[in-house]
Amino acid sequence: MYGNDLSPTASPVTRNDDNLEDDTDFQATIDSAGRIEPRDAMPEAYRNNLIRQIAQHAHSEIIGMQPEGNWISRAPSLKRKAILMAKVQDEAGHGLYLYAAAETLGADRADLLDMLHTGRQKYSSIFNYPTLTWADMGAIGWLVDGAAIVNQVPLCRCSYGPYARAMVRVCKEESFHQRQGFEILHTLSNGTPAQHAMAQDAVDRWWWPSLMMFGPPDEASPNTERSMRWGVKRFSNDELRQRFVDMTVPQAEALGLTLPDPELRWNAESEHWDFGEIDFTELFEVIKGNGPCNAQRMAHRRRAHDEGAWVREAASAYAAKRAADDPVQAVA
Ligand SMILES: [Fe+2]
Ligand SMILES: [Fe+2]
Question: Hey, CA dihedral for 170, 173, 179, 181, is it positive or negative?
């Protein structure tokens, strides 16, 4: 789907936009809510910034399969197992759309994966926390996928066409993920006292890391202004975080669970929920690689990549054979 606009003779990689002296057309397109497409001229900084963002997003999708994949064999029923498998498979699909979107900007997927494996590119810090009980599947779906939706819905209007289009489908699937998480917690919360306690414990552990998913506070987020000018970002980190809190507090009430923040209270003046201070030192430590599961996640990812080498080689051999048999078909 994303590769359709590319051909061997007109790859965006071969074009040099370093000296795009006049980016008036580019900015005018963005200012009129138009889309930038792969073959359009764009400043190199815009291209590089998008590659980095989309790659980080793609890496997050595939690393995010690990904490939940861990529970597929331990799901409490066949129905729960089937739903969880479908969800984890969706995340692999999200990674696929996003790597493909990055490729339309001239990035090489193998290079991006290499940057992940060598620690030169990051993934969302949320996936460096462990999943200790079945209730964590509920808390991840409800809170982590819920935060992802709040972050990603505005990206459906992102200025770069392939990224925006990928987000439309991703967001539909994320909303299924969020509801399945809510439903797991709802069942547990209304179950035995032990099940209710398990649900509460999971929410207690995932609440603050979920708020950190929106990134550092606005005053410590220097690239936000530029991303907004480029139409990549539509709302600041703090705006999105507030939107998530406002959306989630009533849902917690419906679940019969509490959120672990004694300072959480409705502010009638601002018409938003006030919340306590976030410990961003924890976020920065996890980003630096010192979260509870960073080393485990990376080791597993590298191992999975190595074990999949034969699949990539077989696919390349098949593509080469197809190209030799029928060059016209292979390009199309
Ligand atoms: Fe996803
Ligand atoms: Fe998801």
Answer: negative
